[in-house]
Amino acid sequence: MTYPLPPTLCFLDLDNVLADFAWAAYERFVPGQHPPYADQIWEMWRACGVDESGFWRDMDEEFWHNLPRTHEFDAIVDHVTKLFGVTNVFIVSSPCRTHGCITGKASWVEYHLPQFSRRVIFTNRKEILAGPGRLLIDDHDSNIEKWEAMGGCGLLVPRPWNKSKETRRDVTDIILPALNFLFEIRPPSPSPSSPYQTQLEQRHGKIDWSSPATETPAELLASDDPSPIPQEG
Ligand SMILES: [Mg+2]
After folding, report:
1. CA-CA distance, 97 to 198, in Å (whole number)?
2. 159: CA distance to ligand 1 center in Å?
3. What pTM does this model have?
4. Domains of the chain with bracketed CATH
5. Is the pLDDT of residue 217 over 60?
6. Ligand 1 center to 143 CA (angstroms)
7. How many angstroms does the Cα of residue 92 sit away from the middle of ligand 1?
8. Range among 26-35, 76-85, 213-222 with highest mean pLDDT value
9. For the CA atoms of the chain, what is the radius of gyration?
């Protein structure tokens, strides 16, 4: 799979990408005794010692509104805003069934990310938004797999409950270089008169279209030597 052109729209997952849902959930059920990295799983209720319905039941509007930011919040938001432009960044989140979840998440975005507050999408089928030129940044394996199956480009945020568990742990060491990589991809057969290329050059400055892409984002993520983040001139 190759990505011949940089994506133009970015869809950011909320929980465990920007909002630290895992920390808050563990703090609610096992305060101060969060499971170690190796024991953290997607089905968090098991690590919390409750059943699934009990896990979600008391997560009301206040809970969702009060989620802390992740450690990587600033780095991810700053980077995607710079690369995509603020109006091309969307928040996409799958709500649970608990009353107050959607309103709590929406108010969280209004408070922490007012610049994106009119581009928030709630759905448990994120893949319906996927397609060429559309990037999803998410921490759930199946969300990324479905997104890419629909022709989109996905970046899996490394968390202990997904495929990245045995490889990388530092989010910014993966996501930021991968984003830079996506924006450095060159089409193998450039057509200099393409309106799309003109649009990209208007956004990013003069681009050298002669250098073909050789790696996919997945290969980049598996690499032990991620591309360095270019320094601002
Ligand atoms: Mg998530």
Report:
1. 45
2. 10
3. 0.78
4. 9-20+70-222 (3.40.50.1000)
5. no
6. 9
7. 9
8. 76-85
9. 19
